[in-house]
Amino acid sequence: MALMALLLVALFYHTALGLQVLIDDYVHSASKPLILTTVRLGCLALAAMGCFCRRGRSLRLRDGTAAQDLLPPSWKVSRPTGMRFATWTRVVG
After folding, report:
1. For 58-77, what is each residue's pLDDT tens digit?
2. Which helix (H) or strand (E) holds 89?
3. Is pTM, for the whole model, over 0.70?
4. Distance between the two ends of the chain, CA-based, in angstroms?
5. Rounded CA gap, 80 and 78, in Å?
6. How many CB atoms lie within 10 A of CB 19?
7. How many Cβ atoms are within 10 Å of 23's Cβ, its own excluded?
8. Helix axes 32-52, 2-26, angle to 10 degrees
9. d(C-alpha 16, C-alpha 8), whole Å
10. Helices (H), the chain
């Protein structure tokens, strides 16, 4: 689990550095510091969200509805025996 968190932090740090180079090279306006700050905060938020998500928990909305309940009836979640993660399969007619 710690290795996955480290990978996510490295991934989004690398993403922020790459986007910073692009912004430095191609944005020539007074809003450059604002754009850089937004990109850094966005990458930080995505890394934090990835690190703090718990494996095996379904996403819950404010009213307590599971996100998978919002899918159309033609989609179902299946977890065959021996599989570690759920897979989404579409049921065709």
Report:
1. 555 566 566 556 666 666 55
2. strand 87-90
3. no
4. 39
5. 6
6. 17
7. 15
8. 170
9. 12
10. 2-26, 32-52
